[in-house]
Amino acid sequence: MKHLTTILGIAAMLCFAACEKEEESPSNNSNNSNSSTPYNITFTVNAVEETGSDWATVSASIHGDFPENFDPQTAFAGASAGFCYCLADQGDPVWDSTTQNYIDCMDDAIRHEGHSMSGTIYQLDSETSYKVRAYLRMGDGLIYYSTNTITFTTLDDEDVADWMGAYLTIDTVTSVGGNWAEFNGNFHATVTEPRFYYDDMEVGFVYCDAAAGTPDYANHSHIAGTPSWSNGGAFSGRASNLSGNTSYRVRSYAIWHNDTIYSNDCRSFTTTNAK
User: Fold this and answer.
1) Rounded CA gap, 208 and 211, in Å?
2) Are 83 and 60 in contact (CB under 8 A)?
3) 100 — alpha (psi -120 to 50), left (phi > 0) or beta?
C-alpha cells in the first residue's frame, strides 16, 4: 500500500509538470518578440511612409546574424513575414488568420536578402487610427514580432484630394475638331523613383457637357493615359465621339490606391461645327 501511494504521488507530480509545460508553450498568436528568433533576427518598423483614405504603406528593417552565402529562400522555406495591424485602441496587433489582419511581404524581404521589407495595407477605414508591427511566422507556427509598433491615422477623402490634386494639372486643350479634342496634362511627381512609387497609378482626363457641371470619373466620360516619367510626368489623350458646336469641360484625374483625385483646375472648350 505504501509503495502504491508513492507511485501515485510520483505520477501526480509528473502529470502536473506536463500540464505546466503545456500551458507555457506559446500559441500561434502569442507575443514571442523577446524570444530568440532564427539567426537572431529583429525587426524595426521604420515608418508609415504614406497613407490614403483606405490604405497605408509601411516599411521595416530586418537585422540578424546572417552567415556568409546566406540563402533566405532555403532558410525560411514555409515561413512568412510582413505586417499585422489592428485598431489603435485594441492593444498591440497579433497575426490572426481568421480576421486576415496582416499582409505577407516575405517575397519583398527575400528579394532584399533579409534586410528590409515594405508593403501596402488596403481596405482600411477612413479617418481611423491603427497600430502596425512587423512579424515573422515560422513554418511550425511560431510567430515573432517587432520590438516596436507605429500608430497612424488614415486620411479623409478631402485630405487625399487636396494632397494629390496639388501634383495634378491639366495644362492645355491642344486642339479641337467637330467631334474630337486633344488634351495635355501632368503629374508633377516629387519622389526620387516615380516609376516605382506610382507604378499602379492610372491618370487621364474626365470630361462632360458644360451644362452637366463639373466632370467626375463616376458619372462622366474619361480617357486613360500613362505618365511619361522621362518627360516630367506628362500625359496626353484624345476624346472622340463629341458633339459638334458644343461646350465641354475637362480636367485631369488620377486613381491611386483606390483614391480618385482630380486636378484643381478645370478647362472649357467648344467643338467646331461637325461636317
Assistant:
1) 8
2) yes
3) left
What separation in angstroms does the CA of 65 have from each of 28, 41, 42, 75?
24, 7, 10, 13
Contact criterion met (CB below 8 Å) for 54 and 258: yes
Ordered structural domains, the chain, with CATH: 38-154 (2.60.40.10), 159-270 (2.60.40.10)
Confidence (pTM): 0.60
In 3D space, the residue among 185, 192, 201, 197 whose CA is nearest the CA of residue 239 turns out to be 185
190: left (phi over 0), alpha (psi -120 to 50) or beta: alpha
User: Quick one: DSSP state of residue 29?
Assistant: T
Regions in the chain scoring below 70 on pLDDT: 1-35, 111-114, 160-161, 163, 189-199, 230, 274-275
Summarize pLDDT for 53-94 with one digit per residue, the tens: 888 999 999 888 878 877 777 878 889 999 999 999 999 999
